[in-house]
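Example noted here:
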Amino acid sequence: MASRIDDGDDDTVIGGPPLPVKRKGFKKSDRIDESDSSSTHPRKGVSLHAFSKTADYALEERPFFVPVGKDGIIAALERIDKQLRDSGRTGLLSNKVPVSWTGREVAPGFLGLIKHGGLPKILTKPGRYPGFPLRNWWARQWCGTQGLSDTAIQFQGLTVVQVSQNQAAVISDPQNHIFVVKNSGFVAYAIDGTYDVLAIVDQTHLSTSIKDTVTGATLGSTAEIKMRSRVASGKEQEYVAALFLNIPANNCAILQRGDDLELLPAGQHYITNPNVTLRGLFTLGENQLEMPTKDIFTRDQVPVGLRIYLKWQLIEPLKLTTHGYNTPYDALRDKTQSILTQIVAHLDYSSMVKQRSLGPDNLEDGTDPSSAFLDALRTRAMDEMHEAALEYGIILKDLAVIDRQFKGEIASTMDKLTTRALQAQVEAANVDRENSNKVKQEEGALAVARIKAQSRNTQADSEAYSVIAAAKAQAERTRIEALAEAEATRLTAEADAQAISVRAAADAKVTDQFARGMEMRRVEVTRVQAFGNKTVFVPTDGTGVQMGNAMAVGMAAGMGNGLGA
């Protein structure tokens, strides 16, 4: 395989031998031309094969071929011009001197191109160039300008190529040898033949994306660079000159030359060796897939189809391709079919009919009638599959039977039984649902009644509390009114007594007889006014009292005699 011109860039490897494999699981035994079956890793710096390495035509000694160095394209053109002149040939650079007043303009950063008698002449200095001298104006032709930073310039046998870090130029030299230039450039003048720029490749965005046909995972991308060649019949045909590979991380490629295989790690690569072909791209990550099997017959000749779940990781792609498989799935499919056929062929229909899946939830005990099927899958299938997968460089991480389907007459019978069972389950579920609805309705009515009773109790408690509070308030009011009336009576009596005392004291202080007499008469007038002028007042002391008593006795005696008659 060819390599780049500039060997100073060690970050990205394209061409040359592949990098040493550092991934866990890549073994020295992957070398198919060795019989050693040890599992030691290859030593650092030693590739498994070197057949992908081709002659580095870019570094061959060629006349008038100068790599572009740090001093740039103009310095390379000057070196080629010196080589041509030293060999007695016409120089490449023009002797014209720029002026400022007339002629063709060459701006800074550009090259002026002149065809002089079929040979190239290059103007490297910026300025204006007139058409003088006139003695050979008929042999000269102005062909425009080209930028110094252009990726490719081809003019009258002169080829200038310079590519950036992400580019790669595919070149065909005069002998039709193919080489690739990356992160560098060259200036060449072909005396015999031409240097053809076949393509400028963007290495991170190749044209063809390759996906895993089984899992759909992206394995990488490729680009084929073709060249046209004229054959003896005069017709032009296209031939593949180089193959570019962009392999993502955790993926790899397998190259083939004859019966030899070589592993190519992730990265950007190209192949120009016609004897080396791309066998395939592989992912080294985990993959999982559901896989149906072909019909398998039990010991009592009942056909059954299984659907299994596989989870695997490819760790040694060389082993897989050595056995002739293009994908890990192809190897696992054949081996799984073979192992399951052997297991099921020793089991009866009755041992499988009740068990539909094999997984973490049904690996506990052996009391199930279908435990023979489970035991066989747990022990023989897992163990044999794991050992078989290691033979192909695959680690089997999980295996589960997620479904089985019986075929033929037994299948129709099972379908009928299953249909009846499902109908019974549906009817039972409907009855359970109706009962549940009724129970929920009764529970709802009970809850409503409970809430209403609680509401009535709360209301009665509230009314009773209101009555008690009203009675307490009324009693308190009556007590307060009685106390107020008693207090008022007491205060009135005290006031009257005090008033009487004051009047009596005032009367006692009157010593004039006439004044006392006048007061007695005023009392008499007040008493008559109070009881009326027809009232007879009986004296309560002295002779008047005795007379009154006598009159009362007489009246009583008279009334008694009258009653007796």
User: Anything to note?
Assistant: The chain has seven helices and 23 strands. The longest strand covers residues 218-230. The first helix runs from residue 73 to 86.
